[in-house]
Amino acid sequence: MAITRIPTQKRSIETRDKIIAKGFELICNNGYYKTNTPEIAKYAGVSTGIIYQYFQDKKEIFIAGINKYSEDIMFPIFSLIDENAKLPNDLYQFFQKIINANKKQHTSSSKAHQEITAMEHLDKDIENIFKKQEIAFSNKLYLLFKNNDYNDNGLKEKMHLIVNLIDNLAHEECYHKHESLDYSKMEDIVITTIINILKK
Are residues 97 and 184 in the same domain? Predict the structure, then answer.
């Protein structure tokens, strides 16, 4: 197998980026274990040899895709948080906005999100990427509230719990879809719980 390289010329960078984009898209659509490198090459419009100039295998392509796109897919609410901003008076509405943005992205990128989540449980490298991003978002929320004079005692732990509550709510509503559950009530319970956590 050829030694992989990081391109420096514009055309080579564009080729590598195309392989990442198309490879990630194909893996998310078909599933990691149902996709091979020749299929990625064909989908990207390049030869298999070109693929191996830039990547050792499909796992490297998938991880490159996760690093490139997963913030938008897994944590789209990053862009809604400015840790240096003044918190709004209405925290209920603030968290409702975050929850709605999170649900919207889970719906629009459902295949990619589900494939990344599935692989997170099967591959340590992918799990570590996800953990790193989860902590990064928790810390962003933590800094926002700390900068707005919230009690720092246990605040990081509270934010981690809050991030998981928000994410689990999106999974419930977008993927599990239990007909016997009222998700508007569940959303109200989650937001009320978050506000109560912050009061402690």
Answer: yes
Q: Which domain covers residue 113, as residue numbers?
A: 67-199
CB-based contacts of 150: which residues, under 8 Å, 6+ apart? 198
Domain-located, residue 23: yes
Q: Which tens digit of pLDDT belongs to each residue from 162-195? A: 999 998 998 888 778 888 999 999 999 999 999 9
Contact partners, residue 73, CB within 8 Å, separation at least 6: 105, 109, 112, 113, 116
Please report whether residue 61 resides in a domain: no
Question: 3-state SS of the chain: helix, strand, coil percent to 5?
Answer: 75, 0, 25
Contact 198, 158 (CB under 8 A): yes
Q: Is 154 exposed, middle or buried (0-12, 13-18, 19+ CB in 10 A)?
A: exposed
